[in-house]
Amino acid sequence: MKKKYKVLEELGLAERRAKNIKYGEMGRKEELEMIMDKYPEAPRNFILKADVLRRGVTYTKQALERLQDNYYEHFPFRLFQWHGMDHVEEFNIPTLFILNDGTLVSNILSPPEKDPYTVDLIDDKFWVLSDDEPLAEVHYIKRPDYYDKRTRSGKLMQVICTNGAPHLLYFCPSVHCHYWNEGLQCKFCDLDYNTKLQMKMGREYWTRIKLDDCYDVVYEALKEKGRWKQCFITGGSDPRNNFENEMAFTIDLVKTIKQAAKDIADSHFPVLTIIAALDEKQMIRLKEEAGLDAVGLYFEIWDNEKFKLQCPGKEKYVGHNLWIERTAAAVDIYGRGNVCAACVPGAEMAPPPYGFEDVDEAVNSALEGYKFFISKGIVITGTNWQVEPGSYFYKIGAMPPPLEFFVKLDLGRYRLYQEYGGFKEGKGGVYANVLQEQPFACYPDYARIL
Amino acid sequence: MAKLSKEMMELLKDPDTIKTLTTTDEQGLPHTVFKSSLTALDENTIAYMELLETCNSQRNILRNHWAGKLVSIALYNSKNNLSYQIKGKAVRFVNYGPIFSKFIDKVWSVLPQADPAGVWMIEPAEIINEDYQIRRKEEEERVLNQQIWRRFLGKRP
Protein backbone atom coordinates (compact mmCIF):
# COMPACT_ATOMS: atom_id res chain seq x y z
CA MET A 1 0.00 0.00 0.00
CA LYS A 2 1.21 3.47 -0.82
CA LYS A 3 2.36 5.56 2.12
CA LYS A 4 0.30 8.67 2.88
CA TYR A 5 2.00 12.02 2.91
CA LYS A 6 -0.18 14.53 4.70
CA VAL A 7 1.39 17.82 3.62
CA LEU A 8 1.87 16.69 0.03
CA GLU A 9 -1.80 15.73 -0.05
CA GLU A 10 -2.89 19.04 1.41
CA LEU A 11 -0.88 20.91 -1.22
CA GLY A 12 -2.08 18.85 -4.16
CA LEU A 13 1.33 17.30 -4.71
CA ALA A 14 0.66 13.72 -3.62
CA GLU A 15 -0.96 12.41 -6.80
CA ARG A 16 2.11 12.82 -8.94
CA ARG A 17 4.35 10.36 -7.07
CA ALA A 18 8.01 11.12 -7.37
CA LYS A 19 10.36 8.73 -9.09
CA ASN A 20 13.32 7.67 -6.98
CA ILE A 21 15.96 8.12 -9.63
CA LYS A 22 19.52 7.58 -8.48
CA TYR A 23 22.01 10.15 -9.65
CA GLY A 24 23.29 9.19 -13.09
CA GLU A 25 20.50 6.69 -13.83
CA MET A 26 18.83 9.14 -16.19
CA GLY A 27 20.54 11.46 -18.65
CA ARG A 28 20.69 15.18 -17.97
CA LYS A 29 18.41 16.16 -20.81
CA GLU A 30 15.94 13.35 -20.26
CA GLU A 31 15.53 14.12 -16.55
CA LEU A 32 15.13 17.86 -17.14
CA GLU A 33 12.48 17.33 -19.82
CA MET A 34 10.67 14.74 -17.75
CA ILE A 35 10.38 17.16 -14.82
CA MET A 36 9.38 20.11 -17.01
CA ASP A 37 6.57 17.99 -18.49
CA LYS A 38 5.48 16.63 -15.11
CA TYR A 39 5.34 20.03 -13.38
CA PRO A 40 4.10 22.51 -16.01
CA GLU A 41 3.12 24.96 -13.26
CA ALA A 42 6.77 25.46 -12.28
CA PRO A 43 8.50 28.16 -14.34
CA ARG A 44 11.06 26.50 -16.56
CA ASN A 45 13.89 28.84 -15.62
CA PHE A 46 13.38 27.89 -11.99
CA ILE A 47 13.57 24.19 -12.83
CA LEU A 48 16.69 24.80 -14.85
CA LYS A 49 18.24 26.70 -11.95
CA ALA A 50 17.49 23.84 -9.54
CA ASP A 51 19.20 21.42 -11.92
CA VAL A 52 22.18 23.67 -12.57
CA LEU A 53 22.69 23.99 -8.81
CA ARG A 54 22.46 20.22 -8.51
CA ARG A 55 24.72 19.26 -11.37
CA GLY A 56 27.00 22.28 -11.46
CA VAL A 57 28.72 23.66 -14.51
CA THR A 58 31.92 23.37 -16.44
CA TYR A 59 33.36 26.20 -18.55
CA THR A 60 34.82 26.11 -22.01
CA LYS A 61 38.26 27.65 -22.38
CA GLN A 62 36.96 30.62 -24.35
CA ALA A 63 34.23 31.40 -21.82
CA LEU A 64 36.66 31.14 -18.95
CA GLU A 65 39.19 33.37 -20.66
CA ARG A 66 36.58 36.05 -21.25
CA LEU A 67 35.53 35.94 -17.61
CA GLN A 68 39.05 36.70 -16.39
CA ASP A 69 38.37 40.31 -17.36
CA ASN A 70 38.29 42.42 -14.20
CA TYR A 71 35.05 43.99 -15.39
CA TYR A 72 33.41 40.94 -13.80
CA GLU A 73 32.98 40.14 -10.15
CA HIS A 74 35.03 37.12 -9.00
CA PHE A 75 34.31 34.92 -6.01
CA PRO A 76 36.84 35.50 -3.22
CA PHE A 77 36.32 31.97 -1.77
CA ARG A 78 34.76 33.29 1.45
CA LEU A 79 32.66 30.88 3.55
CA PHE A 80 32.16 27.59 1.71
CA GLN A 81 33.84 26.48 -1.46
CA TRP A 82 30.43 25.68 -2.97
CA HIS A 83 32.03 23.71 -5.82
CA GLY A 84 31.82 19.97 -6.31
CA MET A 85 35.59 19.85 -6.80
CA ASP A 86 38.54 21.72 -5.35
CA HIS A 87 39.19 24.96 -7.15
CA VAL A 88 42.98 24.83 -7.15
CA GLU A 89 43.58 26.48 -10.50
CA GLU A 90 44.56 30.11 -10.93
CA PHE A 91 41.56 31.20 -12.96
CA ASN A 92 38.81 33.27 -11.39
CA ILE A 93 35.15 32.34 -11.29
CA PRO A 94 32.27 34.78 -10.74
CA THR A 95 30.07 34.05 -7.74
CA LEU A 96 26.96 33.76 -9.86
CA PHE A 97 25.32 34.29 -13.20
CA ILE A 98 21.91 35.67 -14.10
CA LEU A 99 19.31 34.30 -16.51
CA ASN A 100 17.34 36.63 -18.76
CA ASP A 101 14.37 36.74 -16.37
CA GLY A 102 16.64 37.92 -13.53
CA THR A 103 17.00 34.50 -11.87
CA LEU A 104 20.30 34.33 -10.00
CA VAL A 105 22.26 31.08 -10.26
CA SER A 106 25.29 30.18 -8.23
CA ASN A 107 28.39 29.23 -10.15
CA ILE A 108 29.20 25.71 -9.01
CA LEU A 109 32.10 24.00 -10.70
CA SER A 110 31.57 20.29 -11.06
CA PRO A 111 33.65 17.26 -11.97
CA PRO A 112 32.68 15.21 -15.06
CA GLU A 113 31.05 12.44 -13.00
CA LYS A 114 28.32 14.91 -12.00
CA ASP A 115 27.47 15.31 -15.69
CA PRO A 116 27.44 19.14 -15.40
CA TYR A 117 26.03 21.73 -17.74
CA THR A 118 28.44 23.71 -19.89
CA VAL A 119 28.89 27.46 -20.07
CA ASP A 120 30.21 28.64 -23.41
CA LEU A 121 30.38 31.72 -25.60
CA ILE A 122 28.06 31.75 -28.62
CA ASP A 123 28.21 34.79 -30.90
CA ASP A 124 30.04 36.59 -28.13
CA LYS A 125 27.33 35.91 -25.53
CA PHE A 126 27.43 33.54 -22.57
CA TRP A 127 25.06 30.56 -22.66
CA VAL A 128 24.32 27.53 -20.54
CA LEU A 129 24.32 24.45 -22.75
CA SER A 130 23.24 20.87 -22.36
CA ASP A 131 24.81 18.46 -24.83
CA ASP A 132 25.66 21.36 -27.15
CA GLU A 133 22.09 22.63 -27.06
CA PRO A 134 21.92 26.25 -25.84
CA LEU A 135 19.32 26.42 -23.06
CA ALA A 136 19.60 29.90 -21.59
CA GLU A 137 21.62 33.03 -22.10
CA VAL A 138 23.44 34.09 -18.94
CA HIS A 139 24.98 37.33 -17.69
CA TYR A 140 27.58 38.18 -15.10
CA ILE A 141 27.53 41.06 -12.67
CA LYS A 142 29.87 44.00 -12.76
CA ARG A 143 32.63 43.99 -10.19
CA PRO A 144 31.74 46.22 -7.25
CA ASP A 145 33.76 49.44 -7.11
CA TYR A 146 35.18 48.59 -3.68
CA TYR A 147 36.36 45.07 -4.56
CA ASP A 148 40.03 45.73 -5.30
CA LYS A 149 40.54 48.54 -2.82
CA ARG A 150 42.27 48.05 0.50
CA THR A 151 41.27 48.96 4.02
CA ARG A 152 43.37 51.31 6.16
CA SER A 153 45.14 48.24 7.54
CA GLY A 154 45.94 47.03 4.03
CA LYS A 155 43.39 44.23 3.73
CA LEU A 156 41.82 43.47 0.37
CA MET A 157 38.20 44.59 0.69
CA GLN A 158 36.61 41.74 -1.29
CA VAL A 159 37.90 39.24 1.27
CA ILE A 160 36.40 41.24 4.13
CA CYS A 161 33.03 41.38 2.46
CA THR A 162 31.92 39.71 -0.74
CA ASN A 163 29.25 40.54 -3.27
CA GLY A 164 26.80 37.78 -2.30
CA ALA A 165 24.28 38.88 -4.92
CA PRO A 166 23.81 42.01 -7.06
CA HIS A 167 22.52 44.11 -4.12
CA LEU A 168 23.79 42.14 -1.15
CA LEU A 169 26.88 42.79 0.97
CA TYR A 170 27.90 39.44 2.40
CA PHE A 171 30.06 39.22 5.52
CA CYS A 172 31.62 36.05 6.79
CA PRO A 173 33.62 37.28 9.78
CA SER A 174 34.75 33.83 10.93
CA VAL A 175 35.59 31.06 8.51
CA HIS A 176 36.26 28.65 11.36
CA CYS A 177 33.48 26.76 13.10
CA HIS A 178 34.19 25.50 16.60
CA TYR A 179 32.15 22.36 16.02
CA TRP A 180 35.03 21.19 13.83
CA ASN A 181 37.33 21.24 16.90
CA GLU A 182 35.33 18.39 18.39
CA GLY A 183 34.53 16.62 15.13
CA LEU A 184 30.91 17.71 15.56
CA GLN A 185 30.57 19.78 12.39
CA CYS A 186 27.46 19.37 10.26
CA LYS A 187 27.88 16.46 7.87
CA PHE A 188 27.34 18.61 4.77
CA CYS A 189 29.74 21.37 5.85
CA ASP A 190 33.15 22.08 4.31
CA LEU A 191 33.91 25.33 6.16
CA ASP A 192 37.22 24.55 7.90
CA TYR A 193 38.39 22.40 5.00
CA ASN A 194 37.82 25.30 2.63
CA THR A 195 39.64 27.73 4.92
CA LYS A 196 42.69 25.46 5.03
CA LEU A 197 42.55 24.97 1.27
CA GLN A 198 42.52 28.71 0.58
CA MET A 199 45.44 29.22 2.94
CA LYS A 200 47.40 26.35 1.38
CA MET A 201 46.77 27.90 -2.01
CA GLY A 202 48.42 31.09 -0.75
CA ARG A 203 45.36 33.16 -1.50
CA GLU A 204 44.86 36.33 0.52
CA TYR A 205 42.65 34.96 3.29
CA TRP A 206 42.07 35.35 7.04
CA THR A 207 40.19 33.23 9.51
CA ARG A 208 38.74 36.20 11.35
CA ILE A 209 38.20 39.76 10.22
CA LYS A 210 38.52 42.95 12.24
CA LEU A 211 35.89 45.56 12.91
CA ASP A 212 37.85 48.51 11.52
CA ASP A 213 38.24 46.67 8.24
CA CYS A 214 34.48 46.05 8.12
CA TYR A 215 33.83 49.71 8.71
CA ASP A 216 36.13 50.66 5.83
CA VAL A 217 34.46 48.24 3.40
CA VAL A 218 30.91 49.36 4.13
CA TYR A 219 31.96 53.00 3.99
CA GLU A 220 33.61 52.45 0.61
CA ALA A 221 30.92 50.14 -0.82
CA LEU A 222 28.05 52.50 -0.14
CA LYS A 223 29.69 55.17 -2.26
CA GLU A 224 28.47 53.17 -5.28
CA LYS A 225 25.07 54.60 -6.12
CA GLY A 226 22.01 52.37 -6.53
CA ARG A 227 23.85 49.15 -5.77
CA TRP A 228 23.33 47.92 -2.21
CA LYS A 229 20.14 47.17 -0.36
CA GLN A 230 20.98 44.85 2.49
CA CYS A 231 23.68 43.15 4.46
CA PHE A 232 24.04 39.53 5.46
CA ILE A 233 26.32 38.10 8.13
CA THR A 234 27.13 34.42 8.34
CA GLY A 235 30.04 32.22 9.40
CA GLY A 236 31.20 29.56 11.80
CA SER A 237 29.67 28.99 15.22
CA ASP A 238 31.35 29.47 18.57
CA PRO A 239 29.36 27.72 21.32
CA ARG A 240 31.88 28.51 24.07
CA ASN A 241 30.52 30.38 27.04
CA ASN A 242 26.94 29.79 25.89
CA PHE A 243 27.70 31.56 22.56
CA GLU A 244 28.52 34.79 24.43
CA ASN A 245 31.84 35.35 22.62
CA GLU A 246 30.20 35.01 19.22
CA MET A 247 27.36 37.21 20.29
CA ALA A 248 29.59 39.97 21.63
CA PHE A 249 31.50 40.08 18.35
CA THR A 250 28.27 40.05 16.34
CA ILE A 251 26.87 42.98 18.31
CA ASP A 252 30.03 44.98 17.65
CA LEU A 253 30.04 44.01 13.99
CA VAL A 254 26.42 45.01 13.40
CA LYS A 255 27.02 48.32 15.17
CA THR A 256 30.10 48.92 13.05
CA ILE A 257 28.26 48.21 9.78
CA LYS A 258 25.40 50.47 10.73
CA GLN A 259 27.71 53.25 11.84
CA ALA A 260 29.60 53.15 8.54
CA ALA A 261 26.31 53.30 6.60
CA LYS A 262 25.19 56.25 8.67
CA ASP A 263 28.50 58.06 8.21
CA ILE A 264 28.72 57.68 4.43
CA ALA A 265 25.10 57.55 3.36
CA ASP A 266 23.08 58.68 6.33
CA SER A 267 21.11 55.50 5.75
CA HIS A 268 19.66 52.73 7.83
CA PHE A 269 21.43 49.64 6.51
CA PRO A 270 19.31 46.55 7.22
CA VAL A 271 21.31 43.62 8.55
CA LEU A 272 20.38 39.96 8.74
CA THR A 273 22.60 37.77 10.90
CA ILE A 274 22.83 34.03 10.94
CA ILE A 275 23.37 32.90 14.50
CA ALA A 276 22.73 29.95 16.80
CA ALA A 277 19.32 29.62 18.43
CA LEU A 278 20.17 31.84 21.37
CA ASP A 279 18.00 32.27 24.43
CA GLU A 280 15.43 35.05 24.67
CA LYS A 281 17.64 37.47 26.58
CA GLN A 282 20.43 37.12 24.06
CA MET A 283 18.02 37.63 21.17
CA ILE A 284 16.73 40.81 22.76
CA ARG A 285 20.27 42.08 23.35
CA LEU A 286 21.13 41.56 19.69
CA LYS A 287 18.19 43.66 18.69
CA GLU A 288 18.44 46.35 21.33
CA GLU A 289 22.22 46.72 21.66
CA ALA A 290 23.17 46.17 18.03
CA GLY A 291 20.03 47.33 16.26
CA LEU A 292 19.89 44.05 14.37
CA ASP A 293 16.98 43.91 11.91
CA ALA A 294 16.58 40.17 11.40
CA VAL A 295 17.94 36.83 12.55
CA GLY A 296 18.45 33.58 10.70
CA LEU A 297 18.41 30.45 12.82
CA TYR A 298 19.54 27.57 10.64
CA PHE A 299 17.72 24.43 11.70
CA GLU A 300 19.17 22.70 8.62
CA ILE A 301 16.78 19.73 8.59
CA TRP A 302 13.31 19.30 10.11
CA ASP A 303 13.33 15.63 11.06
CA ASN A 304 14.53 15.35 14.65
CA GLU A 305 16.46 12.10 14.22
CA LYS A 306 18.15 13.19 11.00
CA PHE A 307 19.09 16.48 12.67
CA LYS A 308 20.85 14.62 15.47
CA LEU A 309 22.84 12.61 12.94
CA GLN A 310 23.60 15.47 10.54
CA CYS A 311 24.22 18.30 13.01
CA PRO A 312 25.84 16.78 16.11
CA GLY A 313 27.32 20.12 17.22
CA LYS A 314 24.01 21.92 17.10
CA GLU A 315 22.38 18.98 18.86
CA LYS A 316 24.98 19.01 21.62
CA TYR A 317 24.91 22.73 22.34
CA VAL A 318 21.26 23.57 21.68
CA GLY A 319 19.25 20.55 20.54
CA HIS A 320 16.62 20.24 17.86
CA ASN A 321 13.50 20.89 19.96
CA LEU A 322 14.95 23.93 21.67
CA TRP A 323 16.20 25.23 18.33
CA ILE A 324 12.70 25.10 16.88
CA GLU A 325 11.15 26.57 20.01
CA ARG A 326 13.56 29.52 20.09
CA THR A 327 13.13 30.20 16.40
CA ALA A 328 9.38 30.49 16.87
CA ALA A 329 9.87 32.70 19.92
CA ALA A 330 12.16 35.08 18.02
CA VAL A 331 9.16 36.35 16.03
CA ASP A 332 7.92 38.13 19.13
CA ILE A 333 11.19 40.06 19.22
CA TYR A 334 11.94 40.70 15.53
CA GLY A 335 8.46 40.64 14.04
CA ARG A 336 6.79 38.63 11.28
CA GLY A 337 9.01 38.25 8.25
CA ASN A 338 12.19 39.18 10.12
CA VAL A 339 13.07 35.72 11.38
CA CYS A 340 14.47 33.10 9.04
CA ALA A 341 14.41 29.39 9.63
CA ALA A 342 16.90 28.05 7.20
CA CYS A 343 17.65 24.62 5.97
CA VAL A 344 19.75 22.75 3.46
CA PRO A 345 17.25 21.58 0.83
CA GLY A 346 18.52 18.25 -0.42
CA ALA A 347 20.17 17.13 2.81
CA GLU A 348 16.91 15.29 3.52
CA MET A 349 18.12 12.84 0.86
CA ALA A 350 21.63 12.26 2.17
CA PRO A 351 22.52 8.57 2.30
CA PRO A 352 20.56 6.69 5.01
CA PRO A 353 20.51 6.80 7.96
CA TYR A 354 21.31 10.52 7.56
CA GLY A 355 18.49 11.09 5.10
CA PHE A 356 15.43 9.45 3.54
CA GLU A 357 15.56 7.13 0.54
CA ASP A 358 12.18 8.06 -0.85
CA VAL A 359 11.73 11.47 -2.54
CA ASP A 360 8.13 11.97 -1.42
CA GLU A 361 8.93 11.04 2.15
CA ALA A 362 11.86 13.47 2.18
CA VAL A 363 9.85 16.32 0.63
CA ASN A 364 6.91 15.71 2.94
CA SER A 365 9.16 15.80 5.99
CA ALA A 366 10.74 19.10 4.90
CA LEU A 367 7.36 20.64 4.13
CA GLU A 368 6.04 19.70 7.57
CA GLY A 369 8.71 21.95 9.00
CA TYR A 370 8.10 24.70 6.47
CA LYS A 371 4.40 24.68 7.30
CA PHE A 372 5.12 25.03 11.00
CA PHE A 373 7.44 28.00 10.45
CA ILE A 374 5.50 29.80 7.73
CA SER A 375 2.29 29.73 9.73
CA LYS A 376 4.18 31.54 12.48
CA GLY A 377 5.36 34.32 10.17
CA ILE A 378 8.87 32.89 9.74
CA VAL A 379 10.67 33.00 6.42
CA ILE A 380 12.26 29.84 5.02
CA THR A 381 15.72 30.43 3.60
CA GLY A 382 18.80 28.31 3.10
CA THR A 383 21.05 27.00 0.38
CA ASN A 384 20.56 23.89 -1.69
CA TRP A 385 22.81 21.05 -0.62
CA GLN A 386 26.13 20.88 -2.43
CA VAL A 387 28.30 17.82 -1.97
CA GLU A 388 31.52 19.70 -1.35
CA PRO A 389 35.01 18.26 -0.92
CA GLY A 390 35.98 18.22 2.74
CA SER A 391 32.48 17.51 3.98
CA TYR A 392 31.59 14.17 5.57
CA PHE A 393 28.98 13.49 2.91
CA TYR A 394 31.55 14.01 0.16
CA LYS A 395 33.87 11.54 1.87
CA ILE A 396 31.21 8.82 1.93
CA GLY A 397 30.47 9.35 -1.76
CA ALA A 398 27.05 11.00 -1.46
CA MET A 399 25.43 12.26 -4.63
CA PRO A 400 22.67 14.88 -5.00
CA PRO A 401 18.95 13.95 -4.87
CA PRO A 402 16.88 13.71 -8.05
CA LEU A 403 15.79 16.98 -9.66
CA GLU A 404 12.20 16.12 -8.77
CA PHE A 405 13.00 16.46 -5.07
CA PHE A 406 13.91 20.14 -5.49
CA VAL A 407 11.04 21.03 -7.82
CA LYS A 408 8.44 19.37 -5.62
CA LEU A 409 9.88 21.00 -2.53
CA ASP A 410 9.93 24.44 -4.18
CA LEU A 411 6.33 24.12 -5.35
CA GLY A 412 5.28 22.92 -1.93
CA ARG A 413 6.92 25.84 -0.16
CA TYR A 414 5.35 28.25 -2.65
CA ARG A 415 1.89 26.83 -1.97
CA LEU A 416 2.46 26.94 1.78
CA TYR A 417 3.22 30.65 1.55
CA GLN A 418 0.05 31.21 -0.43
CA GLU A 419 -1.95 29.34 2.21
CA TYR A 420 -0.26 30.30 5.47
CA GLY A 421 1.99 33.29 4.69
CA GLY A 422 -0.58 35.95 5.59
CA PHE A 423 -1.48 36.92 2.01
CA LYS A 424 -5.01 35.54 2.14
CA GLU A 425 -5.89 37.33 5.36
CA GLY A 426 -4.46 40.59 4.02
CA LYS A 427 -2.22 40.95 7.06
CA GLY A 428 0.95 41.31 5.01
CA GLY A 429 2.56 38.32 3.42
CA VAL A 430 5.96 37.08 4.51
CA TYR A 431 8.30 35.86 1.85
CA ALA A 432 12.01 36.36 1.66
CA ASN A 433 12.32 40.13 1.67
CA VAL A 434 14.89 39.61 4.35
CA LEU A 435 17.16 37.69 1.98
CA GLN A 436 15.61 38.40 -1.37
CA GLU A 437 18.60 37.53 -3.54
CA GLN A 438 19.87 34.00 -3.22
CA PRO A 439 21.71 32.31 -6.07
CA PHE A 440 22.10 29.05 -4.10
CA ALA A 441 18.40 28.19 -3.73
CA CYS A 442 15.09 28.72 -5.50
CA TYR A 443 12.96 30.17 -2.69
CA PRO A 444 13.47 33.84 -3.78
CA ASP A 445 12.54 32.98 -7.36
CA TYR A 446 9.17 31.61 -6.32
CA ALA A 447 8.77 34.68 -4.09
CA ARG A 448 8.92 36.81 -7.22
CA ILE A 449 5.73 35.20 -8.54
CA LEU A 450 3.84 35.13 -5.25
CA MET B 1 -18.87 45.63 -10.78
CA ALA B 2 -17.08 48.87 -9.97
CA LYS B 3 -18.60 52.32 -10.26
CA LEU B 4 -16.81 55.23 -11.88
CA SER B 5 -16.19 58.15 -9.57
CA LYS B 6 -16.79 61.74 -10.68
CA GLU B 7 -13.02 62.17 -11.03
CA MET B 8 -12.80 59.05 -13.19
CA MET B 9 -15.66 60.19 -15.41
CA GLU B 10 -14.01 63.57 -15.93
CA LEU B 11 -10.72 61.87 -16.68
CA LEU B 12 -12.37 59.68 -19.31
CA LYS B 13 -14.12 62.63 -20.91
CA ASP B 14 -11.04 64.87 -20.96
CA PRO B 15 -9.65 64.98 -24.57
CA ASP B 16 -6.14 65.50 -23.11
CA THR B 17 -6.20 62.11 -21.38
CA ILE B 18 -4.17 59.41 -23.10
CA LYS B 19 -6.36 56.31 -23.39
CA THR B 20 -5.39 52.79 -24.41
CA LEU B 21 -7.33 49.57 -24.78
CA THR B 22 -5.76 46.14 -24.33
CA THR B 23 -7.37 42.94 -25.53
CA THR B 24 -5.92 39.44 -25.82
CA ASP B 25 -5.82 37.05 -28.75
CA GLU B 26 -6.32 33.24 -28.86
CA GLN B 27 -2.84 32.65 -27.50
CA GLY B 28 -3.34 35.14 -24.71
CA LEU B 29 -1.03 37.64 -26.38
CA PRO B 30 -1.87 41.24 -25.49
CA HIS B 31 -2.84 43.76 -28.13
CA THR B 32 -2.75 47.40 -27.04
CA VAL B 33 -3.99 50.38 -29.05
CA PHE B 34 -4.85 54.04 -28.46
CA LYS B 35 -8.59 54.74 -28.40
CA SER B 36 -9.15 58.45 -28.10
CA SER B 37 -12.94 58.00 -28.29
CA LEU B 38 -13.00 56.17 -24.94
CA THR B 39 -15.36 58.08 -22.66
CA ALA B 40 -17.77 57.63 -19.75
CA LEU B 41 -21.50 57.49 -20.48
CA ASP B 42 -22.47 57.13 -16.84
CA GLU B 43 -20.95 55.71 -13.65
CA ASN B 44 -21.50 52.15 -14.90
CA THR B 45 -20.59 52.50 -18.55
CA ILE B 46 -17.49 53.26 -20.53
CA ALA B 47 -17.78 53.39 -24.31
CA TYR B 48 -15.61 53.79 -27.36
CA MET B 49 -16.19 53.73 -31.07
CA GLU B 50 -14.53 50.94 -32.99
CA LEU B 51 -13.50 52.33 -36.33
CA LEU B 52 -12.60 49.07 -38.07
CA GLU B 53 -14.92 46.08 -38.06
CA THR B 54 -12.15 43.63 -38.94
CA CYS B 55 -9.39 44.94 -36.70
CA ASN B 56 -7.53 42.91 -34.04
CA SER B 57 -9.24 44.58 -31.06
CA GLN B 58 -12.65 43.86 -32.48
CA ARG B 59 -11.85 40.23 -33.25
CA ASN B 60 -10.28 39.72 -29.84
CA ILE B 61 -13.31 41.14 -28.04
CA LEU B 62 -15.69 39.04 -30.10
CA ARG B 63 -13.68 35.90 -29.53
CA ASN B 64 -13.65 36.47 -25.78
CA HIS B 65 -17.17 37.81 -25.42
CA TRP B 66 -18.93 34.54 -24.56
CA ALA B 67 -16.32 33.71 -21.92
CA GLY B 68 -16.68 37.19 -20.46
CA LYS B 69 -12.95 37.78 -20.60
CA LEU B 70 -12.04 41.29 -19.51
CA VAL B 71 -10.34 44.06 -21.44
CA SER B 72 -8.02 46.59 -19.88
CA ILE B 73 -8.13 50.35 -20.29
CA ALA B 74 -5.20 52.55 -19.25
CA LEU B 75 -5.60 56.28 -18.70
CA TYR B 76 -2.96 58.91 -18.09
CA ASN B 77 -3.40 62.64 -17.82
CA SER B 78 -0.25 64.73 -17.43
CA LYS B 79 -2.09 67.94 -16.43
CA ASN B 80 -3.20 66.52 -13.11
CA ASN B 81 -0.86 63.54 -13.02
CA LEU B 82 -3.63 60.98 -12.80
CA SER B 83 -3.02 57.40 -13.83
CA TYR B 84 -5.59 54.60 -13.74
CA GLN B 85 -6.23 51.16 -15.08
CA ILE B 86 -9.76 49.92 -15.57
CA LYS B 87 -10.51 46.27 -16.18
CA GLY B 88 -13.92 45.79 -17.67
CA LYS B 89 -16.26 43.54 -19.56
CA ALA B 90 -17.26 44.51 -23.10
CA VAL B 91 -20.97 43.91 -22.56
CA ARG B 92 -22.71 45.26 -25.63
CA PHE B 93 -21.93 46.38 -29.16
CA VAL B 94 -24.27 48.95 -30.74
CA ASN B 95 -24.19 50.15 -34.33
CA TYR B 96 -27.41 52.14 -34.52
CA GLY B 97 -29.47 54.47 -32.33
CA PRO B 98 -28.76 57.65 -30.35
CA ILE B 99 -25.46 56.57 -28.74
CA PHE B 100 -24.10 55.45 -32.07
CA SER B 101 -25.19 58.74 -33.67
CA LYS B 102 -23.54 60.77 -30.93
CA PHE B 103 -20.23 58.95 -31.40
CA ILE B 104 -20.35 59.11 -35.17
CA ASP B 105 -20.86 62.86 -35.12
CA LYS B 106 -17.76 63.23 -32.98
CA VAL B 107 -15.70 60.88 -35.11
CA TRP B 108 -16.72 62.54 -38.36
CA SER B 109 -15.78 65.94 -36.93
CA VAL B 110 -12.14 64.78 -37.06
CA LEU B 111 -12.25 61.84 -39.47
CA PRO B 112 -14.97 62.55 -42.04
CA GLN B 113 -13.88 59.60 -44.20
CA ALA B 114 -14.40 57.04 -41.38
CA ASP B 115 -16.93 54.19 -41.64
CA PRO B 116 -17.05 53.02 -38.02
CA ALA B 117 -18.12 49.54 -37.00
CA GLY B 118 -19.98 50.51 -33.86
CA VAL B 119 -19.70 51.39 -30.20
CA TRP B 120 -18.56 48.98 -27.50
CA MET B 121 -20.05 49.52 -24.07
CA ILE B 122 -17.76 48.39 -21.29
CA GLU B 123 -18.84 47.68 -17.75
CA PRO B 124 -16.05 48.46 -15.27
CA ALA B 125 -15.12 45.47 -13.11
CA GLU B 126 -12.06 46.82 -11.33
CA ILE B 127 -10.51 50.26 -11.10
CA ILE B 128 -6.88 50.50 -10.08
CA ASN B 129 -5.16 53.74 -9.21
CA GLU B 130 -1.73 53.34 -10.82
CA ASP B 131 -0.16 56.33 -9.12
CA TYR B 132 3.34 55.21 -8.05
CA GLN B 133 3.08 56.31 -4.42
CA ILE B 134 -0.29 54.63 -3.99
CA ARG B 135 0.77 51.41 -5.66
CA ARG B 136 3.96 51.32 -3.62
CA LYS B 137 2.00 51.70 -0.39
CA GLU B 138 -0.37 48.92 -1.44
CA GLU B 139 2.48 46.56 -2.25
CA GLU B 140 4.17 47.39 1.02
CA GLU B 141 1.00 46.40 2.81
CA ARG B 142 0.66 43.22 0.77
CA VAL B 143 4.22 41.99 1.34
CA LEU B 144 5.77 42.83 4.70
CA ASN B 145 8.94 44.73 5.54
CA GLN B 146 9.77 46.14 2.11
CA GLN B 147 10.68 49.52 3.56
CA ILE B 148 13.42 47.84 5.54
CA TRP B 149 14.81 45.36 3.05
CA ARG B 150 14.17 46.69 -0.44
CA ARG B 151 15.52 50.20 -0.34
CA PHE B 152 18.66 51.19 -2.23
CA LEU B 153 21.18 52.74 0.10
CA GLY B 154 23.29 55.80 -0.41
CA LYS B 155 22.72 59.38 -1.35
CA ARG B 156 20.14 60.31 -3.95
CA PRO B 157 19.76 63.47 -6.02
Give the strand line-up of the largest sheet of chain A.
7-8-9-10-11-12-13
Order of helices and strands of chain A: HHHEHEEEEEHEEHHEHEHEHHHEHEHHH
> What integer value in Å does the Rg of chain B equal?
18 Å
Helix proportion of residues of chain A, in percent?
Answer: 25-40%
Q: Strand share of the residues of chain A?
A: 5-15%
| β-strand number of chain A | 13
The helix-and-strand class of chain A reads: alpha/beta
- Mean pLDDT of chain A, to the nearest integer, reads 95
Oligomer designation: heterodimer
Q: What does the radius of gyration of chain A come to?
A: 21 Å
Largest sheet of chain B: 7 strands, antiparallel
H/E series of chain B: HEEEEHEEHEHH
Biggest sheet: strand arrangement of chain B: 2-1-5-6-7-4-3
The total strand number of chain B stands at 7
List low-pLDDT spans of chain B: none
Assess the beta-strand content of chain B as a share of residues: 25-35%
Shape of chain A: globular
Number of helices of chain B: 5
Structural class of chain B: alpha+beta
End-to-end separation of chain B in angstroms reads: 43 Å
How would you portray this structure in words?
The complex is a heterodimer of chains A (450) and B (157). Chain A is α/β, with parallel strands linked by helices. Helix content of chain A is 36%, strand content 14%. Chain A has a 7-stranded mixed β-sheet with strand order 7-8-9-10-11-12-13. Chain B has 157 residues and is α+β, with helices and mostly antiparallel strands. Helices cover 30% and strands 34% of the residues of chain B. Chain B is elongated. At the A-B interface, helix 8 of A face helix 5 of B.
